[in-house]
Amino acid sequence: MDKIPTKQVDSPPKKQVVELYEKSERIYVRAYKGIYRNVRNISAWGLLLMYYLTPWLSWDDRQAVLFDLPARQFHVFFLTFWPQDFALLSGLLILFAFVLFFVTVFAGRAWCGYACFQTVWTYFFMWAEEFAEGSRNERKKLDSKPMSLTKFRKKFVKHSLWGTISIATAITFVGYFTPIQELLGKFSTMEFGPWESWWLLFFTVATYLNSGYMREQVCKHMCPYARFQSVMFDPDTLIVTYDEARGEPRGKGSRKQAIEDDLGDCVDCGVCVAVCPVGIDIRDGLQYECISCAACIDGCNEVMERLGKPKGLVRYATENVLEGQTYHLLRPRFIGYGVAVLAITTYIGMQLFARVPIEVDLIRDRQTLFRDLGEGIIENTYHLKVSNKSQAGITISVDLNDVENYEYLGKQRLQIAPNATIEEMLRIRIHTDDLESPKTDITFDVKSVDDKSIQMEQESRFLAPADQVL
Ligand code: SF4
Ligand code: SF4
């Protein structure tokens, strides 16, 4: 007898609740060892030392790196940038952006994993956390326990360390804008200016929260770079990848059982997830949260080493290589960014090389067009402003070109201290017989007395009554 077909009734789909503002799970990062960890340690400690120590360096009796906003001068070792050098500073910022693009096309988010301030300070805070509270499992256990004297002591040590690092970070940051020794001196009287107080407070709180609590949330939700970096990736960009062909099917069990079940090399131990500072599983493929820190590579390599299997189940590779295709280093985007970096660097280098250490500003007196002193003598007044952008005193001379006979009233030699500006009123007298037009173009020649290469010209005009100049 034929079976009577039964009608299939679809059960209604189960309701799924999607939290719009899901509470983030706390990530307990496991300690690990490996080559990429060593690289990041060197990079992170180097950057931290550079950040904290730079304001303490001196150059010619002043702080070597000081962004003196009230004086509108940026001192960087032997160079001083003035507002007129804005183009140069903009060039530097554009250069940093292109270097970042260039590195990203080549090695993905290497900046995020090894040199970003958020990563560096987060690892610094994680180091303090591990020092105070112990390993991953000890920290987990401690957090699950109710408050006790031991827990309070450990938490107190951790927060004290975090607080100290945050305060030191804030003082150092403000120390790039206010001489740091002066700033520290103000702690005895607590007489800070309003901006100093604001930035000290802001940076202390921001460092504490960003590196202590928000950590990967900053990378996931606040950093714009995480969002647009994917557009710079191509199939030849180095990314942290899991070798699915080698690892799958994953599974736990003895070596014998693995052979019987034809399992891949991944033993599903979860170490790659436990060491990940953003808490993702690299085996799910490239995810935008991944900061390319390579912690999962080190973690997995440790496991492979223990199992006597070849390293590199999780490794840096390109999409093309994983698909068995050829890796291309030189591709249009990579070359394009490289050329841009080279061009901008050359431009900045040339600008720095050709930079004249004096800045001259000459304006005609607009109150009086000219003064008629009688007997054909006409006087014009000019306001001369010269800035010495170098670290050494300079003596300049001022001469007038384009006119043969003239009388110069004012100091023709001027001494300017390092990083100082002088202003001078000049009066020029010319007889109408020596003028060919009521409006004569003239050029002031401002040059260093000792160094002939330091020279600038300023164009202006000499005005005279039209009826006296024929
Ligand atoms: S997946 Fe790997 S490389 Fe990416 S953030 Fe996590 S540990 Fe770092
Ligand atoms: S660490 Fe390696 S072996 Fe362990 S789960 Fe991750 S990929 Fe698999």
Summary keywords:
single chain; 470 residues; alpha+beta; Immunoglobulin-like; five-stranded antiparallel sheet; four-stranded antiparallel sheet; 16 helices; disordered N terminus; binds iron/sulfur cluster
Q: What does this protein look like?
A:
Strand 3 (65-68) and strand 4 (73-76) form a beta hairpin. The chain has two domains: 22-355, no CATH class; 358-468, Immunoglobulins (Immunoglobulin-like). By secondary structure, the chain is an alpha+beta fold. The protein has helices at 35-53, 86-107, 110-114, 117-133, 136-144, 149-175, 180-185, 194-214, 216-222, 224-228, 244-247, 255-260, 271-274, 295-307, 319-322, 332-353; strands spanning 58-59, 62-63, 65-68, 73-76, 79-81, 239-242, 314-317, 358-364, 371-372, 377-388, 394-401, 407-409, 413-416, 421-431, 439-448, 455-463. The protein is 41% helix and 19% strand. The radius of gyration is 34 Å and the shape is elongated. Strands 8, 9, 10, 12 and 14 form a five-stranded antiparallel β-sheet that branches. The chain has a four-stranded antiparallel β-sheet with strand order 13-11-15-16, with no helix packed on it. A three-stranded antiparallel β-sheet has the order 3-4-5, with no helix packed on it. Helix 4 (117-133) packs antiparallel against helix 6 (149-175). It contains 16 helices and 16 strands. It binds iron/sulfur cluster (2 copies).
